[in-house]
């Protein structure tokens, strides 16, 4: 009986491999759904729709951008991790906010690194540290000196406790060894930006696209960019790392994931197709206009990157004591 079972295994193994290869060669042959776990208009949505459109052009099959919002992006991510079929026809766009959520939320029903298959990173957006012009500093070093002279007096705003730009400033505080007071705003960053422009809060970490109009008009002053290299949109603005905090780096990254049990051959194909389209001049120009850069990765490389980012933000969350609103 054991000999028969072993023989059956030997016969079935090449059949399974052939079926997997056939699935990838015929993929996709129907509509693909790309789950975007945040509301329309945000960075995740914009990038997801760019990739969905380009995949449609490449595949000749409809790729639907499906916004499933709620719980700081966790509802859409949990759906793909726990409910979606692992056939390549449901994908997820997730990123740095989800890496932060792994330690910020205590009762998540999915794990970004364990319950989803990494396909590839798409792109990353740096942020900038913007201050109101009334603050008497013009550099990161001057800001650190002022914060040390006036511990706890400087106020920085964010779109809420645990938001990426909140933790960006918490990382700054930890590395600079300064005390500043966080003012969280609920319901998005609109009111925070209004108060920053009015000088009610002195500074904030902000994404480049929403900040650029105020920087150009002089209503906000940029003293540092959070990426390791300068942004083409602000070539004269130094990075935080080169301005007194070596090693400081914060990028809001966004990538594509799939249900964990998806066949490896499908992951390889989807990865190759997304990486190819990210190399196109048109998509590079589109991303550059948003202050983003393509960051394609192989699946294993992307998985390693995700695990490292989760660990990085877990430390910041613990040290800052950040809690969800």
Structural class: alpha/beta
- Taking all residues together, what is the mean pLDDT? 91
Report the sheet-strand fraction: 15-25%
- Summarize the main sheet: 10 strands, mixed
- Roughly how many Å apart are the termini? 61 Å
Structure, explained:
The protein is α/β, with parallel strands linked by helices. It is 45% helix and 19% strand. The protein has eleven helices and ten strands. The longest helix is centred in the first third of the chain and has 24 residues, at 2-25.
Topology at a glance:
Elements: H1 2-25, E1 32-36, H2 43-59, E2 63-67, H3 74-82, E3 90-95, H4 96-104, E4 116-131, H5 140-149, E5 155-158, H6 164-176, E6 181-184, H7 190-198, E7 203-207, H8 208-216, E8 221-225, E9 251-259, H9 264-278, H10 281-289, E10 293-294, H11 299-320
Parallel strand pairs: 1-2, 1-3, 5-6, 5-7
Antiparallel strand pairs: 3-9, 4-7, 4-8, 4-9, 4-10
Helix pairs in contact: 1-9, 2-9, 4-11, 6-11
């Amino acid at each position: 009986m054991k000999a028969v079972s072993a023989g059956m295994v030997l016969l079935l193994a090449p059949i399974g491999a052939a079926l997997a290869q056939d699935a990838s060669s015929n993929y996709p042959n129907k509509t693909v759904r790309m789950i975007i776990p945040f509301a329309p208009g945000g960075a995740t949505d914009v990038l997801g729709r760019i990739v969905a459109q380009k995949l449609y052009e490449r595949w000749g099959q409809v790729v639907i951008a499906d916004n499933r919002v709620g719980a700081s992006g966790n509802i859409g991510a949990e759906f793909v991790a726990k409910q979606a079929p692992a056939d390549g026809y449901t994908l997820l766009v997730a990123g740095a906010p989800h890496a932060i959520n792994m330690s910020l939320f205590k009762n998540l029903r999915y794990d970004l690194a364990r319950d989803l298959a990494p396909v590839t990173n798409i792109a990353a957006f740096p942020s900038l540290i913007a201050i109101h012009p009334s603050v008497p500093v013009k550099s990161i070093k001057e800001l650190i000196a002022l914060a040390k002279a006036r511990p706890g007096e400087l106020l920085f705003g964010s779109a809420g406790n645990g938001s990426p730009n909140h933790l960006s400033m918490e990382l700054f505080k930890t590395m600079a060894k300064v005390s500043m007071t966080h003012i969280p705003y609920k319901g998005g960053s609109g009111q925070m930006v209004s108060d920053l422009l009015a000088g009610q809060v002195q500074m904030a970490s902000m994404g480049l696209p929403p900040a650029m109009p105020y920087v150009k008009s002089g209503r906000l002053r940029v003293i540092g960019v959070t990426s390791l290299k300068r942004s083409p949109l602000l070539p004269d603005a130094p990075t935080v790392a080169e301005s007194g905090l070596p090693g400081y780096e914060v990028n809001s990254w966004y990538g594509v994931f799939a249900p964990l049990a998806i066949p490896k051959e499908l992951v390889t194909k989807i990865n190759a197709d997304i990486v190819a389209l990210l190399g196109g001049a048109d998509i590079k120009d589109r991303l550059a206009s948003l202050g983003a850069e393509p960051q394609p990765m192989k699946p294993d490389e992307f998985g390693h990157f995700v695990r490292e980012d989760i660990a990085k933000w877990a430390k910041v969350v613990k040290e800052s004591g950040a809690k969800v609103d």
